[in-house]
Amino acid sequence: MAARKPIVGGNWKCNPDSMSKLDDLIKNINECDVAKCDVYVCPSLLHVTYVKEKAKEGVMVCPQNCNFKGCGAFTGEMAVEQMKDLGIEWVLIGHSERREYFQESDELLATKLKYILEAGLKCVFCIGEKLPEREKGLEATMAVCIQQMEQVKGLLDPTKVVIAYEPVWAIGTGVTATAEQAQETHAEIRKWIAANVSADCAAQIRIQYGGSANAKNAPELSACPDIDGFLVGGASLKPEFKEIVAAISAAK
Fold first, then answer.
1. Distance CA 46, CA 160 (A)
2. Which letter, b or e, does each residue of 1-26 get, where b requires 16 or more Cβ atoms within 10 Å of its Cβ?
3. Is 132 exposed, middle or buried (0-12, 13-18, 19+ CB in 10 A)?
4. From CA 91, how far away is CA 88, in angstroms rounded?
5. CA distances to 125, 156, 162, 216, 237 from 12, in Å
6. Catalytic site positions
7. Going by DSSP bridges, is the β-strand pair 59-61/206-209 parallel, antiparallel, or unpaired?
8. Model's pTM, two decimal places?
9. CA 60 – CA 101 distance, rounded (Å)
10. Which is higher by pLDDT, 48 or 2?
11. Of 244, 252, 250, 246, which Cα lies nearest the Cα of 227?
12. Which pLDDT belongs to residue 124?
């Protein structure tokens, strides 16, 4: 079976505050070596078209959200059909900030994922626990992750879906799960997929780590066998992003 190709994404969230800052951010992304690693960037909706035009070949532009039904009377939303028209192939859903601040439920996200895949796009699907669960241990952590995957387990096509595991307590806090913690959780996620989807799916599906990954911790995390890449937040707004891509390219 072919090795899983690493995949690293930069999530700019609701940044930057000015179009004038985009060229420097795009430069950071375009400096990445994409020969051995898939690279994508998640700009703010208002910046997607500009970034799509400026991103070099091999860099995928991946909006941070989509709706669940297509074009029509859905004020404030964006449809996969609109993304396809722009030549966009990937979309990210389920980020903890969408779940927390915009009350996106597991049921809604399952509906979105089905819609995305049926429309022919690929998806980065985010899961992850909060600090109280992590403090209770791996079993409580996995209970949250399983709940978030249960309704989409029939949709986990490794050629079309990437899972981004993001310990919510480590996002934007500067606190990172240790490599041991991250590997342990990734391995358990893969084990659950093997038991509840198929061994083939578990072996092939890519699982990214998404909790304050940066150039300093990327080499150690990249060495973990079940970590296939990173969903990078704050560090994706800095020149060090290319070092994260280089680290996992070298490790895998």
1. 25
2. eeebebbbbbbbbebeeeeeebeebb
3. exposed
4. 8
5. 16, 25, 18, 19, 7
6. 95, 166
7. unpaired
8. 0.96
9. 26
10. 48
11. 252
12. 98
